[in-house]
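Troubleshooting: if your tokenizer reports a length mismatch, compare your output against this known-good record of 287 residues.
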Amino acid sequence: MPELPEVEVVKKSLETRLKNLTIKRVFINNSKLRYRIDKKEFSKIKNLQIISVKRRSKYLLINLNQNLTILAHLGMTGKFFIVDNNKKYKTSFYYSLKKNDSKHDHLTIFLNKGFKLIYNDVRKFGFIKLFKSKNIYKCNHLKSLGPEPLTRDFNISYVNNFFFNKKTKIKDMLMNQKFIAGLGNIYCNEILFLCKISPNRVVKNVNNKELIKIVRFTKKILRKSISLGGSSVKNFASTEGQNGNFQIKFNVYNKENSKCKTKKCSGVVKKTYTSGRSSFFCPRCQK
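Known-good structure output:
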């Protein structure tokens, strides 16, 4: 599932290509996603202009004039393609173009200047909805989200207050979208490795120095991942998003039985499960 950095890369791609374009018509090939696409509602966006594309957590917000916003979540396999005068482009580096992609195209937005925006989703766990822009942050999907990790709101004081006397495991806490918005399994594993904290440590036992590390390394890892994917966005037209890939930088995620990358550590990465989700960590240096 794409996490905050991947969705941020998609956001930048969409805004770079689509901002100020006008919607000419909408074609819904299959409305049966996680939530059914409301054809009547989406008929309202004809002739509207895309004024901006934003991200909140793992959600994309395509803002239109006339106080309307398209809210999209990519689920497990959702992705956007952009077609520019019959040439098809990816909007991120975490998936590849395939010959039979089009059979999973569920929604196509036709725009002026020869552009099309296509929502494609093999497993159909993603969704696309239309909201009044003024109400978007009050909708059920967004209203309970925690702070964005790259903002000043995610700081040591906030983390300390949220952690106080809780018996939740640290991995579960980082995955909790009410605590912090946008993290998923991959980045939680990587953050905890750099912090040298076991994924199964109870949060009330995290000390002040470790709190500082959690905030610092969360921001560092996310910025690094976005920058690697961002190189694909910068050269989007020519590279089709193939240059950036944070996966080659993983320290522990999916690295079971690999030697720990910490200097002078002789440990080996192990795989365990935290609340049913796979956790990768070095038992020697993550305590």
